[in-house]
Amino acid sequence: MANHVYQYIEIEGNEDAMKAWNLITDAVVKEYKDPERYTEFYPEQFAEYLGMPEYSEDDSYNWYCDNIGAKWAGIEELSDNCMTMTSAWRPCHEWCEAIAKYLSKFDPNVRVINSYEDEFFNFVGVSINEKDYDDLDELSWDEIREQRCNALDMTVEAYDDDEFEDEDLYDYVEELKQKARDWLTDENNR
To answer: Is residue 78 over pLDDT 90?
Structure first.
């Protein structure tokens, strides 16, 4: 079973939306950054600013599942318009939806794009959240493996053989995510 899901979340918006986002991130960094050591941030630290339900440590599991999309999540890197996160078992679709909903008050065309992958490639995908639109494009490991077998002109049995190593798999997965991102953000596909 999968555990870690790695995510790269981008926020695309006008100047007002990005200013609003940066005010939130500045406030969270000011309150929670520990200058003495590496600091990881957590979605519950943003909840108040985004108008999300109040976090309860007593009901952390349910709060995270309902409001973030995974049973836990941590933000490793945070910048002006993007963040990297790791979560448990699932990508953080609800978290991205909350960010898009809040920032749409400042920019009705804001986009939150999450490119994600399970640590074992059990699934790989991209989601997009906007004010009134959300969608995702996701492939399972079986679909990825089938595509790789076709591209390499080999059988699944040969691909799964312990002796075979797909040295280009990671690059292929990155290409899949880029194609999904391009497709989801192309207005003509809607």
So the answer is: yes
Please tell me whether residue 164 adopts helix, strand or coil conformation.
coil
Give which of 6, 12, 164 is closest to 75, Cα–Cα.
6
Q: Which two tokens stand for residue 107?
A: 């920019």
The pLDDT value given to residue 34: 83
From edge to edge, which strands make up the β-sheet containing 82-88? 73-78, 82-88, 4-12, 111-118, 123-129, 134-140
Alpha helices by DSSP H, 33-140: 47-50, 60-67, 93-103
Answer yes or no: are the C-beta atoms of 11 and 98 closer than 8 Å. no
Q: Are 115 and 136 in contact (CB under 8 A)?
A: no
Backbone angles phi, psi at 26, to 5 degrees: -60, -40
- Mean pLDDT in the chain? 94
pTM assigned to the model: 0.93
- Reduced to 3 states, what is the DSSP secondary structure of residue 163? coil
Give domain limits for the chain. 4-139
Rounded alpha-carbon distances, angstroms, from residue 13 to 47, 53, 87, 141: 20, 24, 25, 33
The per-residue pLDDT for 2 is: 52
Distance CA 129, CA 11 (A): 10
